[in-house]
Design goal:
Layout: E1 5-7, H1 10-27, E2 32-35, H2 39-54, E3 63-66, E4 68-71, H3 81-90, E5 99-100, H4 109-123, E6 128-132, E7 153-155, H5 159-162, E8 176-179, H6 182-186, E9 190-195, H7 201-208, E10 227-232
Parallel strand pairs: 1-10, 2-3, 2-6, 3-5, 6-9, 9-10
Antiparallel strand pairs: 4-8, 7-8
Helix pairs in contact: 1-2, 2-3
Length: about 240
């Protein structure tokens, strides 16, 4: 069963998460990081950028792969996951040459997924995955479904995903998602799951209940031997059903 590290607030959560990533990079400087976007990990990435500025060799040999992106948005759209990650971490640390991401508006989305999966086959598996918990239990755009896709794929977006606050930055609505699959994530050496805010209390309670269901993809993390679940007090449920 996943046992959360409960911290007082978002600031403390972000600091602890950044410290854990730094420790992993120091232990294995050539680590491959898989990074989610969204509001929860943003401060963690900003802190990592600050740490990298103080210690330039920290990110000198690592690589980054983007977890997912909205499909149908132009590459320059501020709402893309790529734009957020480049702004907070990739560009400040000069990691462009060691950063791999889905193109948000490819001519052939399936071919784009095949490109990403081929790169991961050659350069993986992932060492550290930094993930957030979706309202409906999604991880990236691996959405609730009868069957989960194991590898990079084109995803039909749920209403919960389409209501994400990131999309307020764009006048264009995405028509699909591009995402790594569940097997890609489960093969990670370490998974750092960050959960913040009262809106995540119900999904976190469901996750901590311990039941596996493809209708709640995050529950699949129960089978992983090295998941670090960090939440703030606002997200931690008062009671956990088992």
């Amino acid at each position: 069963m996943l046992r959360p590290i409960v911290l007082p607030d978002y600031k403390t959560l972000s600091q602890r998460a950044a410290e854990l990533v730094v420790a992993e990079l120091r232990a294995k400087p050539t680590s491959l990081l898989c990074l989610a976007s969204g509001s929860t990990p943003t401060r963690t990435y900003e802190l990592l950028a600050l740490e990298g500025a103080k210690e330039p060799t920290l990110f000198e040999h690592c690589s980054i792969i983007k977890l997912d992106d909205w499909g149908g948005l132009s590459p320059g759209d501020r709402a893309t996951c790529d734009s957020q990650l480049r702004t907070t971490l990739v560009s400040p640390l000069g990691l462009t040459e060691r950063y791999v991401a889905f193109e948000s508006n490819p001519l052939d989305p399936n071919a784009e997924c095949a490109r990403i999966e081929a790169w991961l086959d050659q350069n993986g598996p992932i060492d550290i995955s930094v993930l957030g918990l979706g309202i409906n239990g999604h991880l990236g755009f691996t959405e609730p479904a009868e069957n989960l896709q194991p590898f990079a794929h084109v995803a039909e977006l749920s209403q919960a995903s389409l209501a994400h606050a990131m999309l307020a930055k764009s006048d264009v609505r995405p028509t699909y998602g591009l995402t790594l699959g569940m097997a890609d994530l489960i093969q990670s050496r370490c998974i750092l799951l960050l959960v913040s805010g009262s809106t995540k209390r119900d999904p976190l309670q469901r996750l901590l209940g311990g039941r596996l269901s493809t209708e709640f993809p995050a529950s699949m993390l129960q089978v992983h031997p090295n998941v670090l679940l960090i939440c703030d007090a606002a997200a931690y449920p008062e009671s956990v059903s088992t």
